[in-house]
Amino acid sequence: MTRLNITLPDEIAKEIADKHNKSRFIAEALKEKLDREKQKQIENSLWEGYNAASKEDAKLQADWEKTETEGWK
Questions:
Q1: Predicted pLDDT of residue 8
Q2: Predicted TM-score (pTM) of this structure
């Protein structure tokens, strides 16, 4: 464990005043926030990969369309 000295806005401090174990509450809240950020990064990476693959697929489709219609004229 690491001990930190943090400063909170008054309104947040008032909202957690009744929490028995403030350290645990804050640690859990931070963990949830960090997990959401990691998930968002994963989603962004997947989206970027999807976009790149989609463009490549479109190019391959266009290339194959030429061969599929060869000799039909």
A1: 96
A2: 0.63
